[in-house]
Amino acid sequence: MPPLETYIYHERQSAALCGQHALNNLVQSAAFSPGQLADAAAELDRREMAFLAENTEGGTSNRDYLKRAREGSGNVDDAGNFSIQVLRLVLERRFDRSLPSVQGEEMKGKGQDLTTNEGFILNRSNHWLAIRLVAGSFWVLDSLKERPEIISHFRLAAEIEAYTAQGYCVFACAGGPLPTQPKELWELERGRAEYWWKEADLRAAGRGEKGAKGNAGRLDTDVWRNLGSGTRLDGGSAASSTPAPAAADVVDLTGLSEDEQMALALSASLAPAPAPAAEVKPEPPAGDAAVRIQIRLPDGRRVVRRFLSAAAVEEIYAFVEGEAGGRVALKAFFPPRDIGHLRSETVEGAKLAGEALTAAKL
Known about the structure:
Layout: E1 7-9, H1 18-27, H2 34-55, H3 63-71, H4 84-95, H5 105-110, E2 119-124, E3 127-134, E4 137-141, E5 149-151, H6 153-165, E6 169-172, E7 196-198, H7 199-206, H8 223-227, H9 258-270, E8 290-296, E9 302-308, H10 313-324, E10 328-332, E11 337-338, E12 356-361
Helix pairs in contact: 2-4
């Protein structure tokens, strides 16, 4: 097999989750979920409240403690904006990397050349973005932008200085090399297909200049760019008026290259199967036949609800998806792991009685 072409991972904005997108763009994979960042924010809030209680006169009756309690979380707001402390905590735990400020004494004291860092996280007015070194060049990965934008090594310091002048806080990713780029097709599963861009096509579209205009660089001829918009196996678009072939039909792949056929087959295998419809039944009364399950929703809320021990795990998904307003992934146990394969099991059979579940939107 020839070596895989270089791809650049670039998540686009969803709600106010630019902090999550910036982290994932930095590490070039869908490594962090909103639930993980929400859990980290709650942990930091508990630490800060405990510190105030233990180190201020009057403890929990102190004015500062009461003011902090009234204000709510200092690490995530209702819209889903996360603090730098949250990003630092999850990045350190998952990849053992730190995020020192480039304006801080730690970086200035070292007199470090900025290009020795593989990535950066930037923030201004609750918006986060990333800069990452890929294939010998730095790329601005801003979830509000359509595509990655290239920066040369020689322009990096000037670009960072320009961002600082615009009011951005800049944090370097320190502590060692960041995760490597995908080397096999299956590794592209680490994020939605439409988030992957061919590095060579981006360079060709922009001619080395930041911010290609119009349709240039959209990679419309690249099969990977079409996967997220509902590509049929015959190469057409889901928006086409021609109906997609039925499962039993013979698919004509004439004219497609071997790589395109491989990518289309992979996209078909990655397509999620339709979830069986499940009814959200009324909460059962307390008793021997009911168990309590604690659920952290994608927006950070915690709910405790009873389910019958004989109910299907699918009923839990139906309840959570109703609360979250869309499809979710659920994790349970320790260390946390996805329980999607248990959807057809009973709550008792899946051993979920008394468990704490974490939900993340898909």
